[in-house]
Request: fold
Amino acid sequence: MTPTALRRPTAATVTPAATANRTGTAPPDAGNILRRCRDLTAPALTEAIDGLHPWVAEMARYALGLREPDGAGPSRGKGVRQALAVLGAEAVSGPGHAGVPGAVAVELVHTFSLLHDDIMDGDALRRGRPALWKAYGTGPAVLAGDALFALGVETLADTPHAGGAVRQLTTALGDLVGGQADDLLFAERPWTGPEAVCAEEYATMAERKTGALLGCALALGARLAGAADCTVAELDGTGRHLGVAFQIADDVLGVWGDPESTGKPVHGDLRQGKKTLPVLAALDATPGGGELAELLTTPGALDGDGVRRAAALIERAGGRTRAEHEARRHLAEARARLTSLRLAPGPLGELRTLLSALADRTV
Amino acid sequence: MTPTALRRPTAATVTPAATANRTGTAPPDAGNILRRCRDLTAPALTEAIDGLHPWVAEMARYALGLREPDGAGPSRGKGVRQALAVLGAEAVSGPGHAGVPGAVAVELVHTFSLLHDDIMDGDALRRGRPALWKAYGTGPAVLAGDALFALGVETLADTPHAGGAVRQLTTALGDLVGGQADDLLFAERPWTGPEAVCAEEYATMAERKTGALLGCALALGARLAGAADCTVAELDGTGRHLGVAFQIADDVLGVWGDPESTGKPVHGDLRQGKKTLPVLAALDATPGGGELAELLTTPGALDGDGVRRAAALIERAGGRTRAEHEARRHLAEARARLTSLRLAPGPLGELRTLLSALADRTV
Reply:
């Protein structure tokens, strides 16, 4: 646990390193922060799942990585969203457990969105195991997602001042659906010409698809701990910028990442023809699209060596540099928003640690 | 519109016929009641849909029958649930428009459940048109369902005392998911023996899958008009009994209904091997299952004449009689609950008219 002394609501100018110097202990790293928040949330999350229809609960435990179908060890997500909700409560000087209903709600909603997105995107693997729709069938996976969605909302309906909390979640849900709709529609648009996807549209999609729920997590935690509306709104914005940075980092890894550490095939996003920022930025900087556009639009051209050639062309046209610049810009914006608020220094330090680790994809 | 004089909150002993005699006008029939409530709800429903992502809104309008893909005329649902929400508000002497957010929410949630159920059940047709997943693809139909679900919750989050209203909806949603899970699992269970589905399990499934949202509609309308908790709970129970009666009537039509009026193939449920009450009751009354069990379990035996033979065996074993008796019993229970409450006579009369028409499947 964070020492209580660190939660005083003083101006937020203390860095994690400075905090460590003051207290004489090393600040927790991102892994420790995530673990502490997961441990705080776990009992309520387990209790919520236990109340579901038994078959649906079994699927929910599989999806959340709480139980393998053969009884083997768990394959959990990192719990980023639940950590943001707990830290959101602590950052406004509330107790971490005040944020727990928010943590449970966003974790359930995040899992719901993964279940349904895997169906929509035809992704057969999730965290190195068969996706739920592969393990149980499409229909049951749709149903399990619906159950988690309803349970997430129900968790908030039981909190004081439920209207505001539910509204915060449904706004994020609306964005989540809109972002996923945009992403699906991007796939049908051309790489070049007036109908091509531009970098601004990409940023809007990423904010909705990835940022909305991260923002909601932070905002819900703070709201449940009694924060003022303007603080809640700033924290929502913080999470949204973090989400765009996180998504861009994911895109860069999707082209240049080491398959050993990403767990994804090398150049996977390129082969699938995904409209990610590095590619869009490279095309934007290449009049007429050049050789890159030709590779992307010629059937079979990305098989074998073509995909390496495309990656090199994207890098040469500045697509990687621009994407990394954009990720840094959104991370800086997220940090600036945190700094502008009068947050408790201990949780603020933990939030900063988590933001950096997420944007660098080191957790 | 119902004349204002009919909405006085006096004890509810006036039948629709008596009401008509007092005012000198014929009481509205079920079609008129549904139309009035649809007209009252339509502007808010349209406004809610218009706020969705444009592509998702297009799918939502198709699913709600507000617009055909080729611009042709609408193919609407009857709007039973929205009518129950409006009448729920009026029955506790509130204005009909107080129930409109509830009407919008249950209509959206009902449409969401149809979209996802059609995917799960592989039903390619809905109201004589391709189901949304057939028209737009499975992934987009999952997404459109999610959007309607979120929008339904959001509609209630903006009402006063949102917590209770959202809780009412999420409880129904939990039941809806549980009922659908039971229904999917029934398909995998045997017709006879200790693992067979019994009539009590069927009733529980029907109450959750069909009754929960009908009960929620009535209860939400009353709750939004300021009714006491006990009145809200009784109206919820009313709708749940109505739902079981409605589902059983649907099952009887699924075996003996005229395809001309049901729009479904004759003996369709039997051919698909659905575990409906008439079949379960007939097997229950036949030691060892007899010839009926043999027909149901022998591959290909229900092709051609076999299905007519099965229908005759179900009728002879008393399956149809027992199902019709159960439907009447649940309808009587729904009516008794309405009568026990001090509801405004005009709306009470309309509710009774609607209950009868629904249980008889004449609307």
